[in-house]
Each structure stands twice: as structure tokens, then as C-alpha cells.
Amino acid sequence: MRNRFEPRWAVATGAWALGYGGLRVWWATGHRPAFGPLGWDLLLVSPWQPVLVCALALLAAVAMRAAPRRWAPPVGCAVLAATIVVSCPLVLLDLVATVLPGLGLPYDPVSILSRAGYLLGAVLLTVAAVRRTRLLRGACPRCGRTDRSRPAGRVPAWAWLGGYLAVAGCLARLAAQLAVGIGAGPMRAGPAEVAFEAGFLLAGTLLPLATVHRWGRVWPRWLPGLRGHRVPRWLVLGPASVLAAGLLVYFGISLAQLVVDPSGWTAGYDLPLGFFWVAIPAYVLWGLGLAAGTVWYRQRTRPRCRRCGRGAPSSPTATRPGASGRRPGSSDQGPDRLDQQPHAEHREQHRGAVPDETFR
Question: Which parts of the chain span the membrane according to its record (predicted)?
Fold first, then answer.
């Protein structure tokens, strides 16, 4: 197998490791900023932990070039990326505080930039690990397809379950809030809180259901001007991926802290301990369900690969309405037959609009 770990990824990973690692050495030797108002930027065992991670990332980049047939380098990259992500649990709060500054959440630009710089390394390492793993499997490094890959069909049971478990987690979190009172919590009342609650409801109901329902891929017929056109893939995939990762990291660590030291949660909040035992697991359930739906949505909406060409219809007649010999409006597969036709993926993504027959 020819070594296809592109030089640009090796150079980018090495540059990040040297740059961010050098900055952390400077901070670890007594020049650390204040990181207000929390006083810390990363969840670390030692201030030298990021330095060690950067050094190992540099070695991993070299190993990816030197040992193209080995599984150890991509596995090491994946472990390092996971270590970085777990060290940045406050990224979810950073996003919320940046978009809605009026909520009163802790906000420190230096801490946010530090976490963003650390997460850049996780992105580089993840891309390197995924591409090398695909090559070792004999798949396309860009899309991950092989000659045995087939277009995604109807929604699998695990994706349906994930989408609705995410909604259940959101509703459980709302029930916990109603039990203690709407006004109880650390956020300030005002327009920012109203916007947050609206986004909270949309992210907990509409977003997970969009990953498993047809209207998450094709605009429904009651939307004038958009009827029948495909939904931009990243309009759903982007927010779902970021939110699922943020929920799992932040509230996964919070759940571990709750199990180890329950009394620590009641010290800083005027809320009963039972509230946290309901709210935090509900967030974790929300994140797990949304992650499952997002994985399937990504597979279902993958476009044709520009590198290997896989993902295209096998023949022009396969996507033509009525090509099966039945009347355009007839089917024995139910109202969601677009998801069950073998090449419906390509009709949604490459024609831009779905024929009217699918709405009748």
C-alpha cells in the first residue's frame, strides 16, 4: 500500500504540536494567565499534560508517514484526539455564551481561544486517523466507501430509537425544570433567555427528528418555494454533530462527577440533589440519541464521491419516476417509499428537487 498520508496533514499536525505545545510549556513554567472567571481553561491532571499530548501527536504524525501499513499510528491518533476532547468539556458553554452573551454564563476570551487551539489538534488527529483507517480497510480515503457499499435504504431501528430517545431526554430535562420551578437556575432573565429556551426546544425535538424523518432531507410540501427540494445537508448535520458531541462530553463528565461526589453539586446551586440526578442523565440520553440519528443521517445523505466516483446511480433509468413499471402514484411500500427505493439517495442529492409523484 502506497503511503497516502498527505504531507499537508503531517505538516499541519506538526506545526500545531510545536506551536501549541510550545505555548503550554511557557504557561507550565510559571507564565500561565489568570483564566477568569473560572480560573482554568482545560480539565487536566497536570499542567504538563497538553505538552505530553502535543509531543505524542508529533510522533504520531511521523509514524503515519513512516509506517503506512500499521494500525498503531491511527489508533494512537484516535486516542490522543479523544484525550483532547475530554479535556475541553466547557466548549458547549463557550458556544452558548458566545451566541447569547446576555445569559450571564462565564465568558473568558483567553480560555475560549486556548480550548479552540487545543481542539484544532483533535480535528487534525481525527482526520488523519479516519483516512488511514479507511486505507487499511481498502476503502476510499475520502468517503469511506468500498466496492461492496450500497446506498442507505429505509431508516434502521437503531436510528429511529436514537432520534426518539433524544426527544425523550429533552422532555425529561424540561420535566425536571418544571418540578423545581421555571425561574430556578443560573441564567439571567431577559430576551437572551427566551432565545435560549426556543433554541433548546428546537434542538431537543425538531433536530433529532429531522435526522430520521424524510422532511429532514426533503423540504415538505407545505413550504412554498422549497417544496420538494433537498434540505442542505449541513443544515442538519452540522448542528446535530456539534450538539451531540458537546452534550456527551460536558454532561458525560458531569455525570461522572455526580456519581463520585454528589454533594459538590448542591454546594454551588440552590437546587435539590434529585434535580441533578434527573437532568444530567437526561442530557446524556439526549446526546446519545442525537449521535445515533446523526450517524445514520450522515450515511443517508452522502453525496457522490469526487475521488472514487462511488455513490452514483447504476443506470439512468434507476432514478426515473415510474421506471419500475407501476403508475407514478402507486406503490406498495407506504408513504415513505422515497427512502426505500434503492437509488433514492442520488435523486435527492443530485437533482436538487424530488418529482411531484413522491408527494401524492
Answer: 9-27, 47-67, 79-100, 112-130, 158-182, 194-213, 234-253, 273-297
